[in-house]
Structure formats: C-alpha cells, structure tokens
Give the backbone structure.
Amino acid sequence: VLGFNYTIRLVPDGRYGSLNRATKEWDGLIRELLDQKADLAIADLTITYDREQAVDFTMPFMNLGISILYRKPIKQPPNLFSFLSPLSLDVWIYMATAYLGVSVLLFILARFTPYEWQNPHPCNP
C-alpha cells in the first residue's frame, strides 16, 4: 500500500546507545544509525546532550512520567455504626472501660468526702 518494505530487528549488542569517552565511539542504537545499518530507531530512549549531537530526535512520545495504577475502591453503603470504624473494637472497649471506671471512682470519692454533704450557704435551702 505504501510502496516500501521494512524490517524490524533488535540491536545486536542490546544497548540503547552510549558514548565511550576514551574512544569517542558509540554503541547500541546510536551506533546502528551512525553506521547507516538502520534508518530509524524506535525506543524509549532518553534524550541527552551527547545523543542529540549525534542523531536527530522527533518529539518525545513519553513525557508523562511514572504512574501507579490501582483499583478504585468500591464504595460500601454506610451502616448504622460506621462512625465507630476509625478506631478498632479494642480501643472502643478500653475507652468505655476507662469512662466507666473514672465515673465510678468520682462517684465513690464524692460519696465519702465530708465536704460534699456540707452546705456552704446555710441560709439558702
């Protein structure tokens, strides 16, 4: 239909392409392009200054960064005691026990203190 043939193949050394600073030689995809063994390279290749000096790049096709996908939780209809959900059952039991314990202790202390039964205003009934 388009009038040309193409072959998709992997790079023999399996590398993207990096510059050896000592020998000034490229490897990987960049080497294949420079040696004209390939006309086009398609990869998620990072555009660096050295690579940009050696070959031409198109507009980046991946520019969204890294994302994490997770399943959206299914909303459950709230039940009668859903307000108790933030704390565990043990915490609620400990809080109720502490509340009752402090209430009983205050009642006993108020019952046995002599100042509870004295009226500081004897003229007022």
Remarks:
- The CA atoms of residues 29 and 42 lie 9 Å apart.
- The two ends are 110 Å apart (CA to CA).
